[in-house]
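Dear colleague,

Thank you for sharing your sequence with our group. We've completed the structure prediction you requested, and as agreed, I am returning the results in plain text so they can be pasted directly into your records. Please verify that the sequence below matches your submission; if there's any discrepancy, let me know and we will rerun it promptly.
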Amino acid sequence: MLHSWVGVTNNRRLSVPYSFSDRSDLWPVHASETTAGTLGRNDFGSIADGLIAGTLVATEMGWQPVEDLRTGDRVVTFDSGMRPLKAVHVSSLWTTEGNAPRNVWPLEVPKRALGNREVIRLLPDQSVLIESDEAEALFGDPFIMVSAGVLDGHKGITRVPPSREMMIVTLEFERDEVVYANGTMLVHCPHERAERAHRAEERMSVNNGSLYQHLTEAQGRLLVATINGVQA
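Please find the predicted structure tokens below.
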């Protein structure tokens, strides 16, 4: 059982391929909620998704800090059992609270809010898989993928100022996978090719193996409001 596993930290040396820490502030000095909303996924170096260092991921060796994982390590997935990592992408991001727009602040998830055994922080574009009767009623499937940002206010989840430096780790498998984080929280690890398919017709031509609907921001907020009994 996942809950009975004891975390194991290995001693493999962390190698960070690049860092923004020596490139001044990551955020534009005059960045705002409006300008941030118009920027594409890669305009800030893909900093709005990925797992923050310290997040524990279920592997064949037990619970491992995500920053300790390496290509070839076998990770427990929700749908496919144990699967090896195709790649691990690491970046170190530096920022200051004053220049970071609030809509890209991380979200702090209280203990057990999403099945997590401890408090955890998620980046706003990190997709999580949630299960609810409301999702089935609204979208025809009880398992739905939403971006963490739409969960602001749900079960005590709230945005918090970013740390001065954040290490972000993105896990990649041969296909889309969902992995366990800090307990039974389920986080999405998209396949690289699927992430590159931006237009609708491109998405249709990419067989990314995704098993779940990924709601738009508006749909996600509707779902959260419905779960919380808030009149839309």
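Summary note from our side: Residues 152 and 232 are 16 Å apart (CA to CA).

Kind regards,
the structure core
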